Amino acid sequence: MADISTQDMLPIGDWVNKVIHFMLDHNAGAFDAIGNTIDWFATMVEFLLLGIPPVVMGAIFAGVGFWRLGWKFALFVCAALGLIWATGFWGQTIATLALTLSATCVSLLLGVPVGIWCARNKLVGMLVRPVLDFMQTMPAFVYLIPAAMFFGLGRVPGILATVVFAVPPAVRLTSLGIRMVNKEQVEAGHAFGCTSWQLLFKVQLPIALPSIMAGVNQTIMMALSMVIIASMVGAGGLGNDVLASIQRLDVGLGFESGLAVVLLAIILDRITESFGHTPTTRAAEQGS
Amino acid sequence: MQSAKIVVKNLYKVFGGKSADVMRMLKSGEHKDDIFKKTGSVVGVNDVSFAVEEGEIFVLMGLSGSGKSTLIRLINRLMDPTDGQIILDGQDITKLTPKQMVELRRRDMSMVFQSFALMPHRSVLDNAAFGLEISGVDRKTREARGMEVLEQVGLAPFAHKYPHELSGGMQQRVGLVRALAVNPSLMLMDEAFSALDPLKRAEMQDILLDLQREQRRTIFFVSHDLEEALRIGTRIAIMEGGRLVQVGTPQQIIENPADDYVRNFFKSVDTSRYLQAKDLIEVANPPHSGRPGLHVPPSCSLPDVLQQLLGQSEPLQVRDDQGQCLGLITPSSVLSKISQHRLQSTATH
Questions:
Q1: Which of A132, A139, B242, B323 could form a disulfide with B67 if both were Cys (CB 3.0 to 4.6 A apart)?
Q2: So what CATH class is B273-347?
Q3: A-chain residues within 8 Å CB-CB of B105?
Q4: Would you say residue B265 has pLDDT above 80?
Q5: Residue B105 and residue A284: Cβ atoms within 8 Å?
Q6: Number of separate domains in chain A
Q7: Is residue B131 less than 8 Å (CB to CB) from chain A?
Q8: Which residues of B touch A288 (CB under 8 A)?
Q9: How many Å lie between the alpha carbon of A197 and the closest alpha carbon of chain B?
Q10: What is the third-level CATH fold of B53-269?
């Protein structure tokens, strides 16, 4: 009874299927072009990162950790990366890092300009907001499948599904940061003869930087959590091990690979977060 | 001879759309409260006309919501007027394109804000040179100019600090420097000193008056503080509910407040402090003028007049620049004037 009524009332599902198939039939060229570009980019990032010996990579991370957060964090980075290397997950972790960074780059390239546009144009902001809600709350598996249909299995659908999930915080926090710039600071920009671009680059973006950096941090964290799930469409990396552990009910493997994800997440989170808190931007957060 | 720097003619600003309807209703004499009820639009500035002379400090006063902050933003077109003219140096700036307006702001005007509105990511020097940077002046020139003005207000040692490292008074000095660095012929100051404590406020007023003595600029100053207005204002305009109620020199306004709204401003202010010799005259144009004796200029302040009068049996002469005697001051004329002012300020309590 219930089945019949839901099937007959409003067949949104049928429409979506039709749209997807229409797009598959008529825009294959465009999807191939996008797919190839992203694949080329992601392959390059992974190739570069895997080319760096583990010791050098560890030294780079520890060095950045020391510069941004001090020696205690640098020590933690060494221990964490040492642990990942010792458990034999180094290659997968770097592959996951490459996927995360690729997806983050694409997300920021899309998210920051859209965020700026939303802040400057009320109508755009109003239209984009529900789209962001949709992207963030629609269960990830639901758009993994069409992504795989458009781009085939592999890294590309994984990265694109990740981008869908990771773009919203970049848009939201960029837009929020710009809208939170004090009204008199914007007026000061205008009063001294700023053009629209000068206002953006010399007043709004620098003052919004802490918020934008928080967005970058959130985007990276979202991307990292999503690239693990994206292993279901063959994105690779640590997600493969997590998936294998589920399929084989191997709790030990699940814990080891999961731990590598957690350690990588902590390192990326603390380092990117630190870029939102320089002495001058802290003052901006206090609104002075 | 003085000439008008800004002439404002029949200026209106309507917020909330339907401006054509609102303008028609205003011109047919409807009250702005009725217009708000009918259309939901707020009349911020309502048929305001005045002129600001070259080189004067013109203080616009009013309570919050009187439209003074709107009016100052119409003058550099941070807001666009709904109707009327703003003529700056003979040019109607309401007709300028956005691009011409950007040019005008860079060349001729600058602004100081109540909340200072400094850029937190820029050093004091970079804040000072902000206006010059925006108009494309090269780094060396703009930093030299920034340092020069920072020195004028005693902030040179702080050039490489950041705004959050400075006190409120110092931050606003940076705000003032930023406005002065572009060497504008017109400075707009929106409640510039209102966020500061009374001591710092008086200090900033002194700095402004000193700077004004060194180089005269036209200053359009918005304030809600009458003492500030009396202290720095060449002329004062009083605004209520979007309209100008009265424009005049501090003395004119103290002597002849236009209505109760204006009188109310003086409630807590001892206006007798602002009396000058010319306000204390008892016998105007005395017959025996030109006779030798003690004399003071018309703008001589009350304490100085009192000092001259002490131990003096002859009346004090008030003489203008040409040595013409305008009138005589006697101890009794001073006493009666002071008591008049005291009565006036207590009567409004």
A1: B242
A2: alpha beta
A3: 190-193
A4: no
A5: no
A6: 1
A7: yes
A8: 120, 163-164, 171
A9: 11
A10: Rossmann fold (3.40.50)
